[in-house]
Target: UDP-2,3-diacylglucosamine pyrophosphatase
Amino acid sequence: MRIGLLAGSGKLPAEFLKSARSKGYQTVLFAIQGITDKDIYSVADKVYEIKPFKLGKFLSFLKKERLSEIAILGKVEHKEALSFKNLDFKAVTFMLKLKDKRAEGIIGGIIEEIENVGVEVINPERFLSHILPEKGVICGKITSDIEKDITFGFKMAKEIATLDIGQTVVVKNGIVIAVEGIEGTDKCIERAGELAGEGFVVCKAARKKQDMRIDVPTVGINTLETIARYGGKALCIEAGKTYIPEIENFKEVARKKGLTVIAV
Model:
């Protein structure tokens, strides 16, 4: 059995490769130069390194490998793609014909290009179910103030995620402090901390009709550290639709930082 992975940055691609290997798969990694963490190269059975946004080169390598399945995981900065910097001819024509250049539209378009060469883009959940938390308190305890902000903030996060604006909303005392845009979760939290000071709550949600192949919410240790550094008190994520790479380390860091983490 063989499976491919188109990997961006972050810890999620490594989790996928390790899980696929444990299930008996040979893995082919399509790494993006300067974006994919080089530490994961050794986890894959075969590696192709592609310069950023060379879509034509990637598709030619994919055809060469004759894979039946591939997953797409990890982060690539949306703003870099929209700058048209370093795009090859295939990528430029791809971007120009896209009617919707939000994250879901871009990744959905890439999926279509991949499937046009006969490779199925899979839902990677079967390899990553162990890092999808169930409903409940992951760490810390829920106070009445935190519960109120979570109830309010998660509803707001769900709406902006469905509009494909971002996935994160930061709230404090029933007021929206910051909404994630193109800058990403951690920058959104930093902005909220600077505006509101200590005591805020971070809520992150999936789209109402989340395609688990596309831009699934992910939180990691860096996010916890950012929340703690700016004085936040809680993180709320969506159960069953948010990946937590290195989940045991994540829980330990949350405990040490005194943060409450809940999946709803």
Observations:
- The two ends are 36 Å apart (CA to CA).
- The mean pLDDT is 93.
- Residues 59 and 161 are 29 Å apart (CA to CA).
